[in-house]
Design a protein that fits this description.
By secondary structure, the protein is mainly α. The chain contains 9 helices and no strands.
């Protein structure tokens, strides 16, 4: 029993370091700026549910999926990094990328438009990115089923914690005001661009190691 708790704590710390829900709160606020409270909660819940499903699937059958489609982790990291960089670049310029926000035409369907950020970039690659998936696969490759079960349960707990942080972020927006949020949006854009670049660098490095 003690080994299970030690493994659970290790998994939690690993996921927390990779996913970093606290640092993702300003990014989430930037992606959902202008949305009402109900829409924001819907975006958060759906993004985290999708992230949980993605991590669960890769925990159970990650290696099989990669082998089936001939995908390598470096290729996944490079593609995800380019997407994150693109979104961060647009945020840094004070613009909204088509990936991040809907067009004026789509805003007539406010809920559907707001939910466009649920899958990308929120669920993937920000929440369930290459690092999170790789971490899940590593923690799930133990000698028994319990390692896999603990990995999935612990990530589910982390998703619940992240949801609470996301939905309570509205108070933060109200407190700092729209102007300050604009500044934060640009700062988060820079951070996202750097994260994307780092993901690409890690992917390229891994690709060279595979080639070597």
């Amino acid at each position: 029993m003690q080994e299970i708790w030690v493994h659970a704590l290790t998994v939690f710390m690993g996921f927390f370091a990779i996913m970093n829900p606290i640092a993702n709160v300003p990014i989430f606020l930037s992606l959902t700026s202008g949305d009402d409270k109900k829409t924001t909660a819907t975006v958060a819940s759906r993004a985290l549910l999708l992230s949980f499903l993605i991590v669960s699937v890769f925990s159970v059958a990650g290696k099989i999926i990669f082998d089936l489609f001939g995908i390598t982790l470096p290729a996944f990291q490079i593609t995800g990094g380019l997407l994150v960089f693109l979104i961060g670049f647009h945020m840094l310029q004070g613009d909204h990328s088509s990936v991040q926000h809907p067009s004026d035409k789509d805003k007539k369907k406010s809920l559907e438009a707001a939910l466009s950020v649920t899958v990308s970039p929120l669920a993937m690659p920000i929440l369930a990115g290459p690092g999170t998936i790789a971490t899940a696969m590593n923690f799930s490759t133990g000698e028994n089923f319990m390692d896999m079960a603990v990995t999935i349960v612990v990530f589910g707990v982390l998703c619940l914690i992240t949801y609470v942080l996301f939905v309570s972020g509205e108070k933060f927006v109200t407190y700092i005001g729209a102007s300050a949020l604009g500044v934060i949006t640009r700062m988060m854009g820079l951070i996202l661009a750097v994260i994307g670049s780092q993901m690409v660098i890690t992917g390229v490095h891994g690709a060279f190691n595979l080639a070597g």
